[in-house]
Amino acid sequence: MSPSTHSAAAAADTARTALRGLDAIRAELAAIYRDLHAHPELSFAEHRTAAEVARRAREYGCEVTAGVGGTGVVAVLANGPGPVVLVRADIDALPVTEQTGLDHASTTEGVMHACGHDMHVSCLLGALKLLADARALWSGTVLGVFQPAEEVGRGARAMLDDGLYERFGTPDVVLGQHVGPFPAGMVGAHAGPAFAGADALKVVLYGKGAHGSRPEASVDPVVMAASTVLRLQTIVSREIPAGETAVVTVGALNAGTKDNIIPEEAELKLNIRTYTKDVRTKVLAAVERIVRGEAAVAGAEREPDITEIASFPVLVNDGAATARTMAAIGAVIGAHQMLDPGPVTGSEDVGLFGTHAEVPVCYWLFGGADPAVYGAAAAAGTLDEDIPSNHSPFFAPLVEPTLTTGVTALTTAALAWLDAR
Ligand code: ZN
Ligand code: ZN
């Protein structure tokens, strides 16, 4: 037995003991999850959520500080000398109108937990409770970090800027998880670049307004925008090597008010995903060149404005940390429940917690889809149509076994890094 298999087996034994407490809190955690799902809050406005997190974490035995980085909450379990293990859950929801029809669907019009962060919160609360009750088994410090505003890529930065590590200690490892559209019960992490870097840009194209009947008096920003959108599609197809990955999406295009008015300007919002610095630099340069080029071709008198809305760095899972963490989880839930999700084009700001302290990160995915429905869709080749993914108004993780799997994974992962007593 190699040392890492040995430690994974030992961590798994400790985890199995700690997880005996799960039966007693499963119903309570499911109720917490449904309550959070019914009351989603947007980035940096997670006031009710944060209050609920603080109340529960305190009740579960943590030392709790609210208001870290805005609406962030830190729940500490200090249990003697040993490693500091940061376990993170994001807490914000999205501007999506829920269409799941569930009993616990959102009660707030236009806001929905469409990314499953309510599941992340419930799982971390459960893991903290189990770790608190199993203090006799481990030593070290668990830093439960409930992070706001992941969806806008600013929450992790806000907590770090608010002195997260100076106030609560610098971690030795950063752990966390995201629920995704694959079978509930499954867990997996991809070592290396795992989540894409994302850049969001706002582009304003300036034309010259005129009456719709007199195009000769205008520089039409609508045509300029249409042409820009089409030309942007050639970045990935014509400029990025076939073996590299990038995504360039124009998610918003707005101009004008009325059929017979040529407007003054048009606004585009772009989302860009890349996995390497070189590809990112190349794509951003191409966007700038195309936007400025199209404006020049159209005869625009004013240069377009290009501003950054958000920027997420690539999330890199440390190879050794991922092997250690996944070995422990696999020993508890079974190797047949483990998968390698590969790199995903989604983005995450959890990586900042690792890069800020220069410590390894292991961030894994766990499934939320009904395994039977998933199996049928996979057999029929209709996964994209039948399994709603994150940010869809139909995204609805199956409460169980998703919750049990998420609590199990977090608890086991933390114990794989804490010292055994
Ligand atoms: Zn999301
Ligand atoms: Zn998310």
Concise structural overview:
The chain contains 13 helices and 16 strands. It is an alpha+beta fold and 421 residues long. Helix 2 (22-38) packs across helix 13 and helix 4 crosses helix 13.
Task: Provide a descriptive summary of the structure in words.
The protein has about 425 residues and is an alpha+beta fold. It has 13 helices and 16 strands. It has two domains: about 5-195 and about 315-420, Aminopeptidase (3-Layer(aba) Sandwich), CATH 3.40.630; about 195-310, Alpha-Beta Plaits (2-Layer Sandwich), CATH 3.30.70.360. Strands 1, 2, 3, 4, 5, 6, 15 and 16 form an eight-stranded mixed β-sheet that branches. Strands 10-12-8-13 form a four-stranded antiparallel β-sheet, with helices on one face. A two-stranded antiparallel sheet has the order 7-14. β1 (about 65-70) and β2 form a beta hairpin. The mean pLDDT is about 95. The protein binds zinc ion (ZN) (2 copies). The site of one zinc ion has 5 residues, from loops.
